[in-house]
Amino acid sequence: MAPTAVGLAARDASGHLSPLTISRRSTGDDDVVMKILYCGICHSDLHSIKNEWKNATYPLVTG
């Protein structure tokens, strides 16, 4: 079974985010494994989530 990750996704331009499970490929010989402790959101992510640039494809996980 492929590894998974959970991200917060916009399902539409409402700006609301909800959890989305994402399938990932297995780690390869040339990959680096990192443990992410914290993350953030920038203002351009908000523009993308709300489709203010008219190019969003949903579901959308920014970052």
Automatic annotation (TrEMBL):
Taxonomic superkingdom: Eukaryota
Domain Alcohol dehydrogenase-like N-terminal: residue ranges: 28-63
GO molecular function, one term: metal ion binding
Keywords carried by this UniProt record: Metal-binding, Oxidoreductase, Zinc
Annotated transmembrane regions: none
PANTHER family membership: ALDEHYDE REDUCTASE
Name of the featured protein: Alcohol dehydrogenase-like N-terminal domain-containing protein
Organism: Oryza meridionalis
